[in-house]
Amino acid sequence: MVKICCIGAGYVGGPTMAVIALKCPDIEVVVVDISKPRIEAWNSDTLPIYEPGLDDVVKQCRGRNLFFSTDVEKHVAEADIIFVSVNTPTKTRGLGAGKAADLTYWESAARMIADVSKSDKIVVEKSTVPVKTAEAIEKILTHNSKGINYQILSNPEFLAEGTAIEDLFKPDRVLIGGRETPEGRKAVQALKDVYAHWVPEDRILTTNLWSAELSKLAANAFLAQRISSVNAISALCEATGANVSEVAYAVGKDTRIGPKFLNASVGFGDQDQRLPEEPVREPRGVVHVQHCCRQEDRCPRLRLQEGHR
Ligand SMILES: NC(=O)c1ccc[n+]([C@@H]2O[C@H](COP(=O)([O-])OP(=O)(O)OC[C@H]3O[C@@H](n4cnc5c(N)ncnc54)[C@H](O)[C@@H]3O)[C@@H](O)[C@H]2O)c1
Asked: What phi and psi values does residue 221 have, to the nearest 5 degrees?
């Protein structure tokens, strides 16, 4: 039986693993976290997060092939595939403060994986991270690898809070990036086989590592641009007497543009709508996009309108 361990029982780790467990009864899934209250909540009738449909999914597979535990090291050591879904908040101090992602939790998870592993592992980046993070993680894992083979994959999560279960059941796409070596391809295939239990093959995209890491940041940047654009239009609406809902509806009817993510609002969406901003690890194009829609610029003279909160 393939064993999956997910480090981080948060908004992404919990629902994602619950859906994998539901759709793959032949796989054992253990979600681990250093937070005891969080794990207790996952094991109770009051889950730590609310998502429509989540209760049902957890009830169906918890205790069968889905488990929640604080015994992080044991389950990491036993796993074939380790998802790392820890928080990567925006740095509050040091280089890149207020902008770059803080990878402290990720790095400490990687060090722990290196310490406790005794067999080959596929390590999957689920957290949203700057491009080339996989390279840094690879260095930590292989520094003292004791002959263990680690394959790092990037498998960013695109779910949105509020529709997480629906998004996981029917994803627009699942993206898996890996090394372009025979071992890398084998690892990509192993993860593809997991998703293939319920995701149609043409929706599982495989790329190299950096394309997968960058695609998540690029998607965030595109989504942020749409909100920034409609917020800018809302200022024009105020000045001209136009109604931003009517304008957004009319614009979104164009099939080249589409209707989603065109509501004027106070922010980009959920906490994951952070933009790529770590200059050292970032290609220029993305930095430029990011500067066009900084958080500070996101709602010029925004006035919330009925139905657009
Ligand atoms: N929330 C979203 O909608 C969303 C969507 C897509 C991607 N993401 C990304 O996914 C990642 C996780 O986000 P989240 O919302 O699930 O975060 P979260 O804060 O809800 O959960 C992260 C969990 O990781 C645990 N953790 C941290 N370090 C650990 C360690 N060393 N060992 C064990 N557990 C540890 C924390 O205790 C916490 O429970 C972030 O990078 C985020 O940007 C989030």
From this structure: -65, -40
